[in-house]
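ESCALATION

Customer reports they have been waiting on this structure for their group meeting. Please prioritize. Original submission:
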Amino acid sequence: MSTPDDSGAEEHHRATNDDPHPVDDERGADDGAHDAAQVPFTERHRTAVGIAVVLLCLVVAAFFAVVGPAGAEASEPWGPILRWAAPVLWVGLAAVAGAWTAGVRRTVVNRMAGVLLLAYVAYLVVRMF
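Update from on-call: job pushed to the front of the queue and completed.
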């Protein structure tokens, strides 16, 4: 039993309770499962998720390049923009996903996504006319 003058036992008790990775008494050791549970799924499987998103975006871009969006065959001055904007936007989205997958700095990926979002808004404005 510790006495009020025995601060060594109390320091040891505080040190073991402040451990961010407690040892599970049933297993006897920390196997890293605690750390993996706190990391989001997309971060644990960044490469697989990124490749899947890039491939999906490229498939959709190819589809729009072959089929073309509705109203894209118009011979108006906006016709080529309407025809090729959707595939280009999907390729841009694939580029953003590829940059995220490759681990490019978050600020660069966010700026790429912002430019792509502005391009999409411009595309929507053109589609209204």
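Sent to customer with the following note: Residues 41-128 form one domain.
Escalation resolved.
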